[in-house]
Amino acid sequence: MLTPEIARLWLENFATLIDTNKAHLSDLDTPIGDADHGNNMARGMQALTEALAAKPDLDLAGVFKTSAMALISKVGGASGPLYGTAFLEMAKAAKNSADLPTLLDAALAGVIKRGGAQVGDKTMVDAWTPLVKAVHDGTLSQAVIDEAVATTEPLVAKKGRAAYLGERGIGHRDPGAESTGYLFAALLQTEGAL
Amino acid sequence: MTYGIVIVSHVPEIASGLPKLLQQVAPHLSITYAGGTDDGDIGTSMAKISAAFGENTAAELLAFYDLGSAKMNLEMAIEFADKPVHLYDTALIEGAYTAATLLEAGVSLSDVEKQLQPLVIK
User: Fold this and answer.
1) CB within 10 Å: which end of chain A, N or C, has fewer?
2) Looking at residue B6, what DSSP letter applies?
3) CB-based contacts of A41, cutoff 8 Å, min separation 6
4) pLDDT tens, B66-117?
C-alpha cells in the first residue's frame, strides 16, 4: 500500500537520480533529440520538490496531482506533458486505490494516450511497459530496468524528435526511456514502495 | 467572428511572426499565439497556450502547432479549455494560412477542414 509519505520518498529519490544524471540524460538527447532532456527534467523535478515541500499535508492523490502540475508547468519539452499526465492519471486512480501496480497501470495508459506511442516506437513507452509488468510480477530489479531501457537502442524512432532522424537513430538509447528507468530505480531505493 | 486561430510554436519568434503573415489575408480574424516556455526558452507551455485561448475573441478555435510536444501541451490545454478547440496536424504555416484565408472569406468549418486535409503531415 502506497502512503503519501512513501510516495514523497519515491519522488525525492527520483528527483535525486534525475539531478545526478542530468548531464547524461542531455548527452543521450544530443545525437537524436534537442539535447535538453536532462535540464528540462531537472528543472521540473526541482519545481516538483518545492511544490511538495510547500504542501506537507497532502493525501496520496494530492501528492501526485501537485507533482503533475509542477512538471506540466515547468518542463517545456515533451517530458512535461508525458510525466505530467502519468502523475495526473496516478492522482485520479489514487482516489480509489493505494495499490502501486494499479496506479502504474493508470500512469502507463496516460503516457500512451498523451504521446500516441506504442511499444517499439523507441520512446519511454518501451521502458514503462515491461517495468510496470515487472512491478505487477514482483520481479523489478536494476537488471530488469537496465534491460528494458536498453531495448530502445536498436530501434528506429516512430515518435518524438528522434523520428526525424530515421535510421540514423539506430544504436542510440532513448533518453525518455532512460529517465523512466530512474523512476523505477527510485522505487527500488524507496523502502516500503514495492 | 465565430472562428479564431491559435498558433503554437517552440520558438517565441515563430509564434509571434506567423500571425503577421496570416493577418495580411485575414484582417478581421482573431489570431492569438503561444511561443516558447514560460521563461521564453525554446519549448512550449500549457499556461501560455491556455492564455492564448483566453485572449482569442472568437467562440471556437482552430489550433496549429510546429512539433510533437507542442501538440501534447495543446491537447492538455484543450482538456482545460472553456471553448471548443480543433487541433490540426498540418504543416504549420500552410495549414494556418489556408484556414485564415478561408475563414476570412466566410467558408464553413467543414469546408475549411476539407482544404486542410492534404496539408496533414504529422
Assistant:
1) N
2) E
3) A18, A22, A25, A75, A79, A83, A179
4) 998 899 999 999 999 999 999 999 999 999 999 999 999 999 999 999 999 9
Q: Does B12 touch chain A (CB under 8 A)?
A: no
Number of other residues whose CB lies within 10 A of the CB of residue A26: 20
The cell numbers describing B8, all together, are 503554437
Whether B86 is catalytic: no
Whole-model pTM: value is: 0.92
Contact A64, A7 (CB under 8 A): yes
One-character DSSP codes across A21-67? THHHHHHHHHHHS-S-HHHHHHHHHHHHHHHHHT-TT--HHHHHHHH
Q: How far is A191 from chain B (nearest CA, A)?
A: 34
Retrieve residue A57's grid coordinates.
Answer: 499535508
